[in-house]
Every structure is written in structure tokens, then in C-alpha cells.
Design goal:
The complex is a heterodimer of chains A (233) and B (350). Chain A is mainly alpha-helical. Chain A has a domain of 151 residues: Ribosomal Protein S7 (Orthogonal Bundle). In chain A, 52% of the residues lie in helices and 7% in strands. A two-stranded antiparallel sheet of chain A has the order 1-2. The two termini of chain A are 48 Å apart. Chain B is α+β, with helices and mostly antiparallel strands and 350 residues long. Chain B has three domains: 61 residues, no CATH class; 82 residues, no CATH class; 107 residues, Ribosomal Protein S5, domain 2 (2-Layer Sandwich). In chain B, 37% of the residues lie in helices and 11% in strands. Chain B contains eleven helices and eight strands. The chains are: A mainly alpha (233), B alpha+beta (350). At the A-B interface, helix 3 and helix 5 of A face helix 9, helix 10 and helix 11 of B. Chain B: Pfam families: Ribosomal_S9.
Chain lengths: 233, 350
């Protein structure tokens, strides 16, 4: 039996396709602005503000503002990077567990650093960093790749083309590598906070498997430099 | 340039004005208006009110009284409104008896849009010509951007209603860009009346809300009550002055009711923002929702209650921190043909 003609089939498919509707929409009206939670910004007196900021304030006075999400708070303990990392560690929506693991990790880092601090001689004591938040931020910064690879298909073959990465993408890759490293390459008996604190301290000192992965990525990007002209953006 | 990323369901409304030439003749609509006015006077007479001062609200109340309806859809109940609201405005027939169109841009398809662009561009050229004529010193100084706060451009839907024609997003953006260009020219003040036709006033947000004064109970302690909602949770909070920072929820202490740190952080958020952590006592009741929704509802209720204790400026700061807005995000419904709200069924090739 001959297959139905291509044109007839296409016309029938066109008639059946429903009208396209918007898929990415939000419950807020598009005129709503993001909330600004940092209370220090509000305590600055009017005279210190620059022209731009005064204009922005005036604009904000007329625009409606979205509600602050439940993961954000104005206390010193809420950090956007840490919240992002906790959300990435979360499995099946178990935020309670993810948050407790994060707290245990930070505690473990603090304990290890304090141990080192008390054992070190006087002159080295100042060089040891004890604040777990500072260690976390610095470790993430050290893990971020500068350039990434993207697969582009030309003439049937797929090439890995070196491509500059956006800030969001760098942060995401660093966090993703940390988490996958801790989940896969650990002994069955070690707990997640212990392994994470180990990895973070290693990354803080620019050593460890994640930094190695970053260097490997940089080297392959350097090796594939010849294909850089395939990038069109 | 602007880029419309999100839209609301309002966008999917039909533009009836652009659907085609009028289905109702002018004479018909005039007759409807006469009948409406007559009916209004009869109704006023029936209700025993003065026919001269019978407003639309009175008509609605009278109809709801005379024709009580238990239907759920408000638009299905009996209504009596002015014909201009019921019969939507539609374009008149744009060609004469010989078939020749009246407007010179008829064959473009969007005649009112293109004629509007034509007019605006003409005004722009006039302003530029006037500007070139003046010597350099006579140029009026750079006027402050008064349009940023207090007024906004008409939305695409409003413009469509004004022109009675369908517009595409690109058309609308081009028009707004032209208007902005006209506005930024130094001599643009000449055309201010024309530009004002396409702007709308936006009232400052705070003026809509009335802050209640503080109440005093028997001991002389000031307190204030308010409510908050989040998802399906409803909460009422009473914030007392001269307190030690104790919080009681549904008769249970906050440490026992909210074992999770995140919820307690949310409860403390408004107090921490205003630097009043140990100064107020709070007693609240909450029902419905889950643990995070209840925490969010109490947060909103306490922020609203704290408004009465605090200066107007701080209320504005609270609003800009997002403490006083009701979170409209609710659970999205499951759609037929899909497994969940967004998740589709597993695609099987055969």
C-alpha cells in the first residue's frame, strides 16, 4: 500500500496542531519588581545616595514589588550562594535534610580549621582562615572554570568548541562538580558533610579532584583552540 | 529594547473590536441606548428612588434584588448595563457603495495603526525642523524624566482597544519607541498633549492602603492585629508592645510548633528587618496549608501588624523588601492529557 502523500499529511498535521500558548509565565504581573532584602541599603541616609540611586528609589515607590521567597531572610546567616548550593544538594524536595547537611558541613569545616589553628605555631596562626563562609566562597571561586566546551555539529562531525562561559554557568558548574564528586567518589561509610568539608578545604587550597577537573577542562579547551572559529555568538 | 517574557491570562482575551465590520447598525445601538435609559427610569420608579440620581451601582443592586440568581459565574447572572459596555465598539464599514475604501491606507491591512505611525512621525519631523531653526542657545534645558514615576505607556491591549485593530508585539514596540524618541527631544514639549493621549497615570502604591491605629488593652499595652495568607494557609497575628520576644502559635510555643530553622527565620524576618527583635510579643493562630505556607502566612500577618508601630518610611522599606505583598503563587492545576501540571506522559515511539 502506497504511503499517503507528504503534502496531504503535512496539511492534516497543520490543521491538528493547536494554537501555541505561552509556556513560561508567572503568577505575578510583569510589572512587579524583585524585592531588596538587605536592610543596610535602607538605613543609608538620603544625602549619601547618588543621582542614579535616587531615581531608582523614586521609580520603586510607584512599582509593585513581589513577595520575598521563604528561602530569603535579612539575617546575617542567610547567604544566596549557600541557599543555591543547598537547593542543588536537595533530593526529592527534602529541604530539611539538605539544610542540616549544609550546617553539619560548615560545622565540620570550622572544627577542622580550629584544630589546625590550635596546633599551629604563633607566626602561622594568622594565615589560617577559620570562617567557614569565607572558605566556602573562596573554594567555589577557585573551582569555577573560565572557559567551557560546547558541542557544535558541522558537516556530520561534532566538535568540542571552546566557548566563554557566563557567570551563572560558572557558578553552576563549580557547584555541580562539587556535589557529584562528593556523591560518587566517596567510601560508602563516610558521611556527606565529612566528604564535602574535605573537598571544600582542598579546593580552598587549590588542590583536589575538582581543581584537577577544572584544569583538564582548560587544557582541552586550549587544545581545541583551532575550532574556536566555529562559534557564532 | 523590551522583550515580553511573561504574559498573564489577560493576554488571551479576544479583541472583538478588530474582528470585522460592525454587526450592529448605528440606529440599532441608538435604540438600545434609549431603551436602557427608559428602563433605568422605570427601575428607579419601581424601587422608590429618584430617577434623576440613579447610578449604575444602584441599578446593579436593584437587579440583584429583583432577580436573585444562584449561578456561580458572575457573568451568567442578569445584568443591566449601558449598551456601550455590552455591545463592544466595532469598526464601521470602511468602504463606500462603489466598493472604494475611504482611508488611503486601507490596503495595508492595519489602516489605523499605520495612520497613527504616520501622524506620530510627522510630529517628530516637525519638532526636529523647529529645533533646527532655533539657534543653539534657545534650546530649552534637558527636562527631568517626569514620565518615569507616576505615568506609564498604554499597554498593547489598551492600544488595540483604542485603534479597534489587532496589533503584533513588534508593531506595538515600534510605536512605543517612536513615542519615546519624541519625548526625549528637547522641544518635545510642544507635542505633550499628543503624547499624553498614550500615557496613563500610575498612583503611588502606598496611597491605596490605610494603616490602622494602635489599640490598647486592659493593661495599657499597645497591640495591633492583622491577617495574612500564603497558598492555603490563613493566619491572624496580634503583636503586643513592651514584650520579651516570645511567640505563641495556636497556643503552642514557636520552638515546638516550628521545629525547622527556616520557618522560625521567616517568623523573625519582619522583626529583624525593623531591628525590633526582643521588643514585641506575638500571639498568632494559623490553619491550613503546610509548614512553610503557615510560616509565610504568619510572616505576612506580623509584617502587616507591625505597620501600626512604625513610621511611614519604614513601611515603605518593608514593602520594598517584599514583606507586605501577598504571595500569589499557588499550586498549579493538573491538566488533562498530562500527568501533572507540567509533566507530560512518557513518550513512547510506538
Amino acid at each position: 500500500m502506497a504511503a499517503p502523500s507528504a503534502a496531504g499529511l503535512r496539511r492534516r498535521l497543520q490543521a491538528w496542531l493547536p494554537r501555541l500558548t505561552q509556556v513560561r509565565w508567572s503568577r505575578y504581573n510583569p510589572s512587579f519588581l524583585e524585592p531588596e532584602v538587605n536592610k543596610e541599603l535602607y538605613q543609608k541616609p538620603l544625602e549619601e545616595l547618588s543621582e542614579e540611586e535616587k531615581e531608582k528609589l523614586e521609580l520603586k515607590a510607584v512599582q509593585p514589588i513581589k513577595a520575598a521567597p521563604p528561602s530569603v531572610s535579612c539575617s546575617v546567616f542567610s547567604d544566596p550562594m549557600i541557599s543555591k548550593f543547598t537547593n542543588m544538594m536537595m533530593k526529592n524536595g527534602n529541604k530539611v535534610l539538605a539544610r542540616s547537611l549544609m550546617a553539619q558541613t560548615l560545622e565540620a569545616i570550622k572544627r577542622k580549621q580550629l584544630e589546625k589553628y590550635h596546633k599551629a605555631p604563633e607566626d602561622e596562626k594568622e594565615a589560617i582562615e577559620c570562617n567557614p563562609y569565607v572558605i566556602f566562597h573562596q573554594a567555589l571561586k577557585n573551582c569555577q572554570p573560565i572557559i567551557g566546551l560546547s558541542s557544535i555539529t558541522r558537516g556530520g562531525k561534532t566538535y568540542q568548541v571552546p566557548v566563554p562561559l557566563k557567570d551563572n554557568r560558572k557558578r553552576f558548574l563549580a557547584m555541580k562538580w562539587l556535589i557529584t564528586e562528593c556523591r560518587e567518589n566517596k567510601n560508602r561509610r563516610t558521611l556527606m558533610p565529612e566528604k564535602l568539608s574535605q573537598e571544600l578545604l582542598q579546593a580552598f587550597n587549590n588542590e583536589g579532584p575538582i581543581i584537577k577537573k577544572k584544569h583538564v577542562l582548560h587544557k582541552t579547551a586550549e587544545a581545541n583552540r583551532a575550532y574556536a572559529h566555529f562559534r557564532w555568538w | 529594547t523590551l522583550r515580553l517574557i511573561y504574559t498573564t491570562t489577560a493576554v488571551q482575551r479576544k479583541n472583538v473590536g478588530a474582528s470585522g465590520p460592525e454587526k450592529y447598525t448605528e440606529a440599532f445601538i441608538k435604540k438600545q441606548i434609549e431603551e436602557f435609559n427608559l428602563g433605568k427610569r422605570h427601575l428607579a420608579n419601581m424601587m422608590g428612588e429618584d430617577p434623576e440620581t440613579f447610578t449604575q451601582e444602584d441599578i446593579d443592586r436593584a437587579i440583584a434584588y429583583l432577580f436573585p440568581s444562584g449561578l456561580f459565574d458572575k457573568q451568567a447572572r442578569p445584568i443591566m448595563k449601558h449598551p456601550s459596555e455590552i455591545f463592544p465598539e466595532q469598526r464601521k464599514i470602511q468602504w463606500g457603495e462603489d466598493g472604494r475604501p475611504f482611508h488611503f491606507l486601507f490596503y495595508t491591512g492595519k489602516q489605523s495603526y499605520y495612520s497613527l505611525m504616520h501622524e506620530t512621525y510627522e510630529k517628530l519631523l516637525n519638532v526636529q525642523k523647529y529645533q533646527d531653526q532655533l539657534p543653539a542657545q534657545d534650546l530649552p534645558p534637558q527636562k527631568e524624566k517626569k514620565n518615569l514615576a507616576g505615568s506609564r505607556w498604554l499597554t498593547k491591549i489598551e492600544l488595540e482597544e483604542m485603534l479597534l485593530e489587532k496589533l503584533s508585539d513588534n508593531d506595538y514596540l515600534r510605536f512605543i519607541q517612536l513615542l519615546q524618541k519624541l519625548m526625549t527631544l528637547p522641544c518635545g514639549d510642544m507635542e505633550e498633549k499628543y503624547i499624553q493621549k498614550f500615557t496613563k497615570e500610575v498612583p503611588a502604591q502606598l496611597q491605596k492602603v490605610v494603616i490602622e491605629p494602635l489599640k490598647y488593652d486592659e493593661r495599657g499595652v499597645a497591640f495591633s492585629t492583622s491577617e495574612g495568607i500564603r497558598k492555603t494557609a490563613k493566619a491572624t497575628a496580634t503583636v503586643y508592645d513592651n514584650g520579651t520576644g516570645k511567640i505563641t502559635v495556636n497556643g503552642i510555643d514557636v520552638l515546638h510548633y516550628f521545629p525547622v530553622l527556616q520557618d522560625r527565620e521567616q517568623l523573625l524576618f519582619p522583626f529583624q528587618f525593623l531591628d525590633r527583635v526582643g521588643k514585641h510579643d506575638m500571639i498568632c493562630t494559623v490553619s491550613g496549608g503546610g509548614r512553610s505556607a503557615q510560616a509565610g502566612a504568619i510572616r505576612l500577618a506580623s509584617a502587616k501588624a507591625l505597620r501600626s508601630f512604625v513610621t511611614e518610611k519604614e513601611v515603605e522599606f518593608m514593602r520594598q523588601a517584599g514583606l507586605l505583598t501577598i504571595d500569589p503563587r499557588v499550586k498549579e492545576r493538573k491538566k488533562p492529557g498530562q500527568e501533572g501540571a507540567r509533566r507530560k506522559f512518557t513518550w513512547k515511539k510506538r
